Amino acid sequence: MKMPSTKSLTELTTPFASITADLGQDVAWLKSLRLRALAQFNSQGLPAKKQEDWKYTSLWALSQQEFTHQPDVSTVSAAQCEQLALLSDNYRVVIVDGAFSAELSHLDNLQQGLTINVLSVEQGLATAQPHLGQQIDITKAGFNALNTLLMNEGFVITVDSDVQVEKTIEVLVINTGTTANLATHLRNVIVMADNSQLTVIEHYVGLTDEVSLTNVVTEAVLATNAQLNQYKLQQESSNAFHIATLAAKQGSKSQWKTNNISLGAKLARNDVHTQLLGEQSHVVMDGLYLVNNEQHVDNHTRIDHTVANTTSEELYKGVLDDNSHAVFNGKVIVHKDAQKTDANQQNKNLLISRGCEIDTKPEMEIYADDVKCAHGSTVGQINEDHLFFLRARGLDEVTARSLLTYAFAVEVLNRIPSVEIRQALSAVIEHRLPQGGV
Amino acid sequence: MLKIKNLHASVDGKEILRGINLTVNAGEVHAIMGPNGAGKSTLSNVLAGRDGYEITQGEVIYKDEDLLALAAEERAQRGVFLAFQYPVEIPGVSNIYLLKAALNAVRKQQGLDDLDAIDFLTLVRSKLELVKMDEEFLHRGVNEGFSGGEKKRNEILQMALLEPSLAILDETDSGLDIDALRTVSEGVNALRADDRSIVMITHYQRLLDYIVPDFVHVLSDGQIVKSGNKELAKELEKTGYSWVNEDA
Fold it and tell me: What kind and span of H or E run contains B217?
């Protein structure tokens, strides 16, 4: 039973038989999971603007598209892959047009205690099973239900107790643009045992201006004292729709450091959520968005401090040019037993043009009385004194503006501990500026 | 080097400079002194090309070119250097990056290639010595967390590297303790040359004990009301600025 050739997302609320994903049709638990997701999606559909969480992001353009879930054959060469990758000499998982490519991936000689699988192999699916749906709530967002209904591929990573993974894992998700209006629904799982350490970068690229939909859900679980650095770089095509949920649960003394960089896509929506469930757990939730033309990027974050002595640091920065539109909604919830919570949340925006729009809403809900919490947002322009200083040193105006924009953005990257990753991401940001390579 | 003729400039419709005349020849050091509100900072900003000033009359000729027709960066590329009264902090732009970009902008104007990394570093190190700055400063954000003295030394470091033809030092002594003033002054003195002119703008005579000018001008209410040699500055120190206005 295959997908019909193309369907708009709203049309997906048709009989189950015609829209089931290929993966795991003979796996009973998965079938029943998908059935629940279908029922959920049928009753709920896509989010609408009247929902508070989607107030500033319209899915009208997305709902008008017809998507296919059957990619044509495409080829990406190893050399091309090397060029696209952010890092070399690391573990690499490559997914091309929604399908895992073993040939392009670098998964030889994995460190003892580390497993990297994909959902489309039996072992990957089995490993993922107990964790699927644990970090997300399919009743809350239509895309999570849709993802559960249609997930076909994704990475499944586990790290055993006391294992510190030395190499970074780069997950390179390539949309070749060979198939018009291709939709891919990826489901990723990361399981970190006690005292384990890992760094993962999800890297989404588009090779053409073709319309596409990437709907991705990543669920991570961090046991006691686990450390997960999880970065994401999204540089899809200017006609891409990118919808992502990244959710974690954290045990005591665990550290989850995220950095979520959005450069591409016509419409990108990220929901990042963690629950700090164990004492002394810590989260860094950072992000950077650089948008221009008619791009729209929406970041919704949520941090739940549920127990005492947990800490969170959040910095989202944005640079908006042309007629772009960005939304930031950050929610920090300090539950009633979460005494001694220390939470800091900031959203800072730099507006380059008159036509852009930012809707920023930092929120804190505090139900405990002995906490240290700060939050704020700023919206500003290039500082004229800084600009004049650089021009008075001989830098032309375009270069000076680019340099100041870079300086604004790079603060977020400077919080990444790994020099290699920081430099690689900084280089990407530099090239994105009007005067590339400043 | 520099000829200012009957320069009038306004900010938001208010005339600040009301007919400045000044000629600075190559190799000369001129001090422009004056009370607060005389137009000292306006003059330095107008010469450096800052936006927001309307030139209503007069002209400024620099090396046979109409200086006022050039953008700020074009003036810098041609050898005009403004040492700022309040150097800005720019986190995220490293000092060494700024120095390199500034030097290469000047070299490009001169038809020279960019310096390679090694030559550049060798050059910068020699200039660091001049202003007694540690190499560590190169890798910090521009003026980020610098003390007042360090910021001013950083300005002189930039000047030393760029080797301008015309340096305008805007209140370089402000906010400096005596040791920092000495270091900065020694840096400037080392940069005095036959082909380089320096215009020092200052409120106090103190700076002129360290950087001895060839000429001293008194700016008051947007005009140069008196010119003389270094003795004029000493006179001002004794009597203040009040007599200047009466005299004028």
Answer: strand B215-220
